[in-house]
Amino acid sequence: MARYDIKTVDIRRAALPEGAIPPYGTNPLLIKCPKHQDDSESLAIYPDHIHCMGCPFRIQKRMDALAFLLKLPSWKEALAVAPKYKFLTETERQAAKQKEKPRRAPTMRDVEIYEGILSDICADRIEWFHSRGLSDETIRTARLGHNGAAFVIPVFDAKLNVVTLRYRNDEEICGRYEDEWEGDELVKAKKIPKYRGWTGCNEATLYPAWKFERDRSDYVVLVEGELDALLLWQHGVPAVTATNGAKKQGLVLDLLSAFFQRIGHLARRRPSLRRVVICGDRDEPGIVAARKLFERAKQEYAEVVWLQWPAELGKDISEVMQKGYTFEQIYEQYGFDEESTPSESSTGSAGHDAPTSSAEATDTKTDGNVSEQISPSPRRAYPGGLYSREYLPLAS
Predict the structure, then answer these.
(1) Name one GO cellular component term (predicted).
(2) Is the pLDDT of residue 386 over 80?
């Protein structure tokens, strides 16, 4: 066992809930004494000993006192866990105080501030949204912004109340790693999370709920990210995702179920879903996640289609559409109602035929020296044409 100075141990922390801050300096923590009928919190716990002001109870040695507070057999067992209860540094005290403070929820004013930053001092970063295929109109209506270090994605409920803010790290400004230093020595490079949420308001939410509730299609596309969802809506395709849903494949289905339960009593409600389209990333983790989501969705919905385009077309739906493919073409050619394999035909098994003749598949997009074969627009309708129905508009 490594040696350490027991004088650095503050036994008051053992009498507090984890994360709580002990009194400042060496001031005692007062609690009720278990050795007598105590109505006034007369047991004083100092950093290094215990002293009761209402009875003769005393423990003068630090490790004996720690063993008493932790209900351990002796000071030897206390010694083994003592490093956990070291004095807090001033920095640690301040950080703990910040955690204890109630966190306010984001407001529309926060959204407006970040919108202003994006349109003003970070106007050059709008190009990043454009590179994801998002139009100025989509950027405006989704109220996207920037805080100087990250792109900001506001999350609204169905009534356009602000629920939370999502932050997407701007790697051009902040990079992917944050260096941690001790003096002049680089200790380690910590990876910056790609996505973060507003502290204290980071629960999973259906996105974009305000668009989905007003939609009248009886199908929806499930995607991995908020920006992918916005891109599909931009092209007239209803799509949703679960915010803060990384590594929780079934979460978006849970949120959909909760959504329909919430509106179940409304007379003029959004129609239920008949078809779900799984549209995950096509890297290995994305395929594994999509497979789990696909298997569960088949147990809950009448029809489930999994989009399984070749990885070389792009990692996600945004990359594929940036190459000139429309969602209709992707759905027609790569929509399957079972998991495909590389040896299978490129014709989707969701009831749609991909063009087979060379004449039918000769639309060619040339970009520099790169030539890509783009399927022509399908002759058969994609989900919106298959199952969409007309409904009265929402009540105002």
Answers:
(1) cytoplasm
(2) no
